Amino acid sequence: MNEVMFTLSNVSYQYPHGQTALQNITLSIKRNKKIAVLGNNGAGKSTLFFLLNGLLKPTSGTIYFCGHPLSYNKKAIQKLRKAVGIVLQDSDSQLFMPTVFEDICYGLYHVGINGKEIEKLVQQAMIETDTYHLKDRSIHSLSIGEKKRVAIAGILAINPEMFILDEPTAGLDPYYSKKMIELLNNIHLQGKTIILSTHDIELAYEWADEMIVLHKGKIVLQGSPFTVFKEEDTIQSCHLDLPWMYVLQKLVSPLDEASSKNLNKKQLIQQLKNAISNKTCRK
Ligand SMILES: Nc1ncnc2c1ncn2[C@@H]1O[C@H](COP(=O)(O)OP(=O)(O)OP(=O)(O)O)[C@@H](O)[C@H]1O
Ligand SMILES: [Mg+2]
């Protein structure tokens, strides 16, 4: 099995009569990683995701999927979409069938899955995203957060190898944001690759194995959350902030890669408690 899912070699994209949204992107996306893409509004995150899913074609440069240059004929795109599912930033651009059930089914038909299997896959995806009760509802009547969960159910039902999620927690309340991350972690445990964009730096710091920071269509930082946020000046110049977990950890212990890797809130609180009790003991 190819360890590298995507390789982008000097990829640029300019919208017709518009902005150069991405410039000379060179990047590898390895299998079974959890990758967070950060960047301010207009940095090029959505454009990058459109390119990975074949919704857009590079103006220059080449995208390789599992070692082969992407083809854009109908059959190749159908194959790509079965392997790489995308949840768009704007759910209204993704959902268009009359009802929730029909919409989730449509994605499966589209990638060539037919027959009895469909109902089972749709039902399972609705259960996992807590959308079963919305089954017969009209898409137009759903709230923003409900639409997002239905869009995710549509991709989940296809069971792709890689999930691309453009701001998956935007519009979700804290309960469903947490559920979403749990769902993504479960998907990851099944061996899937996940790349998401977010403006939530706390989420990126705690969740990601790897981060990519885009600014004005270029990759400015890439690496583990630790190595990325360590570049504090670059982070600020990209209009981003430092996660409070990173800032707090810097206060309690000297930063080193090993101690900050996959640090979650619980571990950080424990470190804080240890630091406080060490201080008390020394007095
Ligand atoms: N359809 C389009 N036509 C022309 N320019 C576009 C189009 N879509 C996006 N752009 C431009 O391309 C650049 C990158 O946009 P993109 O949507 O990829 O940014 P983003 O990082 O996803 O931003 P956001 O955080 O606001 O979602 C921006 O300058 C944007 O104005
Ligand atoms: Mg976007």
TrEMBL record:
<dbReference type="GO" id="GO:0005524">
    <property type="term" value="F:ATP binding"/>
</dbReference>
<keyword id="KW-1003">Cell membrane</keyword>
<dbReference type="InterPro" id="IPR005876">
    <property type="entry name" value="Co_trans_ATP-bd"/>
</dbReference>
<dbReference type="InterPro" id="IPR003593">
    <property type="entry name" value="AAA+_ATPase"/>
</dbReference>
<dbReference type="InterPro" id="IPR015856">
    <property type="entry name" value="ABC_transpr_CbiO/EcfA_su"/>
</dbReference>
<protein>
    <recommendedName>
        <fullName>ABC transporter ATP-binding protein</fullName>
    </recommendedName>
</protein>
<dbReference type="InterPro" id="IPR027417">
    <property type="entry name" value="P-loop_NTPase"/>
</dbReference>
<keyword id="KW-0067">ATP-binding</keyword>
<keyword id="KW-1278">Translocase</keyword>
<comment type="function">
    <text>Part of an ABC transporter complex. Responsible for energy coupling to the transport system.</text>
</comment>
<keyword id="KW-0547">Nucleotide-binding</keyword>
<comment type="similarity">
    <text>Belongs to the ABC transporter superfamily.</text>
</comment>
<dbReference type="InterPro" id="IPR050095">
    <property type="entry name" value="ECF_ABC_transporter_ATP-bd"/>
</dbReference>
<dbReference type="Pfam" id="PF00005">
    <property type="entry name" value="ABC_tran"/>
</dbReference>
<feature type="domain" description="ABC transporter">
    <location>
        <begin position="6"/>
        <end position="241"/>
    </location>
</feature>
<dbReference type="InterPro" id="IPR003439">
    <property type="entry name" value="ABC_transporter-like_ATP-bd"/>
</dbReference>
<keyword id="KW-0472">Membrane</keyword>
<comment type="function">
    <text>Probably part of an ABC transporter complex. Responsible for energy coupling to the transport system.</text>
</comment>
<keyword id="KW-0813">Transport</keyword>
